[in-house]
Amino acid sequence: MTRLRNTVILCIILPVALFVMLATDAVKEELGVRTRLLSMYYLSKQLAAEVALANSRDPQELPPNYGRILDDYSHILDSSAFQELVSISGHFPESSFSKMLVSRFMLWVENLPGDFFSVDPLNQLAVTLNMLEKMQRLNNLEREKLLLKHALDCLYQNPQEPGTCWQTVRKIPEIVLQQGLDFCGERIPLARPDVRKRIEYQIAYLLTDLRTTTTTWLTRRDRYTQAIDAILKAEQVPSEFTLLPALESGYNRRVVSPSMAGGWWQFVKPTAIQTLSKDPDLDWSLQINSVKDERRDLALSTRSAARYLKWLRQKLGRGDRPGSWLTAAAAYNAGFSEIKHRTNAYNSLEFWDMKLPIETEEYVPRWIAFYLIDRNRDFYEIDVPEIQPLEFDTIEGVRFSQDLPLAHLAVLTQTSVRFLREINGSLTRDQTSFRAMRNNEPLTYTIHVPKGTKDEVMWMLKTKKYLRD
């Protein structure tokens, strides 16, 4: 009887034990796969967010190196860093298998979406990337068709009548090559093939891919450059910097970048509100609060940008020798620390002698290319409609005893509220007046009024008792 009972028990327990052993190996293998997928899932979500941000923008606004960015994303799963992440996530000591089982199960329950086991996030990422790459190929194809069309137009032109197609008008004008190009008080080395090629590439880019945008920039440049130039001259900054807001914001005060830089000159908030200069004459601080954002004030932000650029040039110099204005502009784009590191690494203060981040490599040549197009509009066949330059008077240090409605100021100065908002861009959209107080504290304003009305406005403010004593 005992032998029979032992035999029965053995027949029951042995298959169960074998099943459990086999099932354990299968579960371990499945768990290892799922853990690797979990690591991939979080990485893919980060990449997908980047791709979605780029996909939400107009293809014409994407940087020229966007194809390289996509290529980097598509190969990131093969990188050694990612493979190391996978190997770490799949490695657990055998002795702690039970704890590993429980911890992984909790990880699934608490972190994974409900459709994780039915939807492959990596496959979704691949589909998104393939779609974006396809869009890019289509855009490149359309661009090639456009260039081919104008190349064919060149063939039909009478050889004695050059300069009628883009193939012949996207180079540096011959007279500039003969006389040389002075930019920001510095001689641009056009004799160097690499420098000339970089500038001509940006001329071609602005006249083909961004032709409509370039025309818009030039129109806005005619509107705002007079006001900008007056401030730059007062701050002793070269007038060529009047064109830099085209690259920063497109002369649009409402533009906000993905890094939350805003205003005409695209200051990020930490840089805008706190100056790093110990020289009061280089204090570029701006006020940003719920009532106003001075990054959107043309005069105030331009003065701050000029002082910031002067500080950058000073810091990028050596001894008594100031740095290059071009290098200062590069630091404005890439950041002071980045450019300072490059000047030390390459032992040079010249922009053209350093290898820089790709965006900055294109930033300064594009600025120069836009300058050449602006100075040679007829040569490049750019037709820009005439527009009235923006003019206004400025009153600084105004403190109100009561709110001043924009509508009242518009009636007094015989202008529109829209125009007052344009010249007083620091006011937030929901503000319909210059508020006197914020959090029980008086506010101080720099206000702008139509040209020639400054004295009349000040008399009215005093008469109507709008000003604090």
TrEMBL record:
Q: Name one Pfam family in it.
A: SLT
InterPro entries linked to this entry: Lysozyme-like_dom_sf (IPR023346), Transglycosylase_SLT_dom_1 (IPR008258)
| Ranges for domain Transglycosylase SLT | 230-352
Reading the lineage from the top rank, the first entry is: Bacteria
Report what the protein is called: Soluble lytic murein transglycosylase-like protein
